[in-house]
Backbone:
């Protein structure tokens, strides 16, 4: 009997020692110098503290009070941000923070649930409510290269996922299973609206189905518009490039150059998001209890990364854009003449949209 008791005691001691060792490793992560801290968590120490305070403020809306748990709210935010900003697994994030994988999973989804609360998203995904605010957005866009009256730019960001069992509708135009994320971006790379759909749904279809797209006529003031790539339909609210043909005029080519330069903020925002939240650079692997691809959880991972992106942009905590990542949009090749029909005016439109685009062209 004494041998059994001794073995059990040794086992408990070993487990306690391993937990203490993991805990010391996590403390060393938090206490690193500022440069190392930013490399570890993808943000400045002050930004991390702000995110912790934000999560603490909204925590009671979706979670029980933490109480005397060994892992504080700061620990839970830390493992979540580490998980999102690294290409490794949840097991890697758990190990780095002295937690079991089960505990880390629970804490990550607790924090994600807070970040995706309406009370949080309402603050960090705002559209203007006055003409003056819309004009301020268009003035900022015009500073880029002189393109007038554009308030926002729209485009898609593809995030690869592991193939679901029911894979129909999930394969994007680049022939891999994906989530297609609609990004509506201002000139400062702030995402003003997002919508996550299966990869088989195109950017044009996502705009049509999304709340933003359905309400666009009511949202935009008269004389203002958003810009998109050539896969979108031309309308009074959405201005796209002229179809690329051998007969297009120099003025049309100049318009396309200005329009695409302005619209590039969407790709730049996408690059910023993926560079900081490196989990999005690899196929997402979240799974359901029966082992299928957890596409809803995957969408939540993407959405929480974009919420954090907006928070950090608001704090002026930026990442450099180096275009090192591959093209992750669902945009059609604008240099291919076969795309003319896709890029042209929607047949249901009258001539007003074409006239508006011509008017912008003639102003430059």
Residues:
């Amino acid at each position: 009997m004494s041998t059994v008791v001794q073995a059990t005691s040794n086992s408990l001691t070993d487990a306690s020692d391993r937990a203490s060792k993991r805990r010391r490793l996590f403390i060393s992560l938090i206490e690193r110098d500022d440069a190392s801290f930013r490399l570890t968590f993808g943000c400045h120490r002050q930004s991390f503290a702000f995110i912790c305070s934000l999560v603490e403020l909204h925590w009671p809306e979706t979670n029980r009070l933490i109480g005397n748990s060994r892992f504080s709210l700061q620990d839970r935010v830390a493992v979540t941000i580490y998980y999102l900003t690294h290409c490794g697994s949840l097991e890697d994030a758990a190990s780095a923070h002295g937690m079991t994988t089960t505990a880390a999973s629970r804490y990550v989804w607790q924090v994600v649930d807070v970040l995706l609360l309406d009370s949080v998203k309402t603050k960090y995904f705002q559209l203007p409510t006055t003409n003056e605010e819309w004009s301020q957005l268009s003035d900022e866009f015009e500073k880029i290269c002189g393109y007038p009256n554009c308030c926002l730019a729209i485009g898609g960001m593809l995030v690869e996922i592991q193939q679901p069992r029911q894979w129909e509708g999930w394969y994007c135009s680049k022939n891999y299973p994906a989530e297609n994320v609609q990004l509506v971006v201002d000139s400062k790379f702030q995402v003003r609206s997002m919508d996550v759909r299966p990869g088989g749904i195109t950017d044009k279809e996502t705009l049509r189905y999304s709340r933003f797209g359905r309400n666009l006529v009511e949202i935009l003031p008269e004389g203002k518009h958003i810009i998109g790539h050539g896969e979108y339909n031309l309308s009074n609210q959405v201005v796209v490039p002229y179809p690329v043909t051998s007969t297009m005029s120099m003025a049309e080519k100049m318009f396309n150059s200005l329009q695409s330069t302005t619209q590039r903020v969407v790709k730049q925002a996408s690059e910023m998001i993926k560079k900081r939240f490196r989990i999005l650079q690899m196929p997402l692997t979240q799974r359901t209890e029966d082992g299928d691809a957890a596409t809803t959880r995957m969408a939540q991972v993407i959405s929480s990364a974009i919420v954090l992106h907006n928070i950090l942009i608001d704090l002026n905590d930026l990442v450099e854009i180096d275009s090192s990542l591959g093209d992750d949009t669902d945009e059609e090749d604008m240099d291919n003449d076969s795309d003319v029909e896709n890029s042209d005016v929607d047949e249901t439109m009258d001539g007003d949209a074409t006239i508006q685009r011509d008017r912008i062209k003639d102003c430059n």
Q: What stands out?
A: The longest helix spans residues 2-30.
